[in-house]
From TrEMBL:
Gene, per the UniProt record: arsB2
Membrane topology, record value: Multi-pass membrane protein
GO molecular function, one term: arsenite transmembrane transporter activity
Protein name: Arsenic transport integral membrane protein ArsB
Parts of the chain that traverse the membrane: 68-97, 133-157, 242-262, 282-307, 362-381
Organism: Streptomyces spiralis
GO CC terms of this entry: plasma membrane
């Protein structure tokens, strides 16, 4: 629906063709980066990285639900940060289901952790989330400085989520599990691991020398895709599907639609309620507004609306928006595309999701993670 809506906005004059073209050009590098990261994550899965992670997690947990939750938190946080939230939702969630079944524990806490951490743990790096890529472009920060400023909020938010999960799912985590079956440790997919590490190093190097990090992401994607094609595990069509061209078109079209709405009055309306400055009260207000807006209109349109309004105030305001649109969506299904996709995957595994339970968990987890994360951001901005 987004592509016809964008065409209609141009045809009716809600946005001029020049403005639509300028918006598409602004989003072009972000979309290219996203495509490369999606391909990188897909071929990490082809190499067996996620299956190996699931097996390692099961062996380490030893059938103990609390240890498994801890392992899932660590694994989902790392995968979300490095390979984006899409990898956690699409590739890790089925692995967590299989791991829970293998170890005999109740899957609910661990599966819910995947959706919450796909949002909350996507704060660390520009590559972790599409919203991050947009904020990164608007902030004027380097890759390393972005990561340095977001490291403490990332850790604080994940820690707060973990405490909430331990209390909320205490009954499930206390349930006894049968002794897990022993098995041989899987061979580590060294090629995939080395490629991912080199790609991360490439992000730092390119940022240091003022080169767009998309080239590092593209190099990593080409290495893994090329290896899979050379070994007959993939073809050109597989690579194209991994890049999700329909989703990329959706992002570009949505950017045009949101720009039309912003130009026709939304910017003025939000400008009256958006806090000014970068003090702690202002950052808390910006993050809260971003979280509310994310749950009303989804986090991707929310970040597209708020970034032009907050960018003039500096990177602090931009990163506060990011905290709101990344943590806030854990409150409702509609908060982010990742949560909607997670819900579909859970239903495919014949595991019900209770709306009231999901919302109760969100009402506890979102403020518990968002407020201390904003405080941590405020502190990081003053220290760094």
């Amino acid at each position: 629906m987004a592509v016809p809506a964008a065409a209609l906005a141009v045809a009716t004059g809600a946005i001029s063709l020049d403005h639509a073209r300028a918006e598409a050009e602004r989003l072009g590098p972000v979309v290219g980066f996203l495509a490369a990261v999606l391909v990188l994550a897909h071929f990490c899965d082809v190499e067996g990285l996620f299956q190996a992670c699931g097996a390692w997690t099961a062996r380490w947990a030893g059938g103990r639900p609390v240890r498994l939750l801890t392992a899932v938190f660590a694994l989902a946080s790392a995968i979300t940060a490095v390979l984006s939230l899409d990898a956690t939702i699409v590739l890790l969630t089925p692995v967590v289901f299989a791991t829970a079944a293998r170890t005999g524990v109740r899957p609910k806490p661990h599966v819910y952790a995947c959706t919450h951490l796909s949002n909350t743990a996507s704060l660390l790096l520009p590559v972790s989330n599409l919203t991050n890529l947009l904020a990164f472009a608007a902030s004027g920060l380097s890759f390393t400085r972005f990561a340095a400023l977001m490291a403490l909020p990332w850790l604080v938010a994940i820690g707060a989520e973990y405490v909430v999960f331990r209390r909320f799912f205490a009954r499930d985590l206390a349930a006894a599990a049968p002794a897990p079956a022993s098995g041989e440790a899987p061979e580590p997919p060294l090629f995939a691991l080395v490629t991912v590490v080199c790609t991360l190093a490439g992000f730092v190097v390119t940022s240091t020398f003022g080169v767009d990090p998309v080239w590092a992401a593209l190099a990593g994607a080409l290495v893994l895709a090329g290896r899979a094609m050379a070994r007959g595990k993939a073809g050109v069509a597989t690579v194209v599907r991994a890049a999700a061209p329909a989703f990329l078109a959706f992002v570009l079209a949505l950017g045009v639609v949101v720009r039309a709405v912003v130009d026709n009055g939304l910017a003025d309306a939000l400008g009256h309620v958006l806090p000014a400055g970068t003090g702690l009260p202002a950052l808390l207000g910006i993050a809260a507004l971003a979280a509310v807006l994310a749950n009303l209109i989804n986090n991707l349109p929310a970040v597209l609306v708020l970034l032009p309004l907050t960018a003039p105030a500096g990177p602090g305001a931009v990163l506060a928006v990011l905290l709101g649109v990344n943590i806030g969506p854990n409150l409702t299904y509609a908060g982010s595309l990742a949560t909607l996709l997670w819900r579909r995957i859970v239903h495919q595994h014949e595991h019900g999701v209770d709306l009231r339970e999901f919302t109760r968990l969100g009402l506890l987890a979102v403020p518990s993670a968002l407020v201390p994360a904003v405080v941590a951001l405020w502190g990081a901005l003053r220290i760094l």
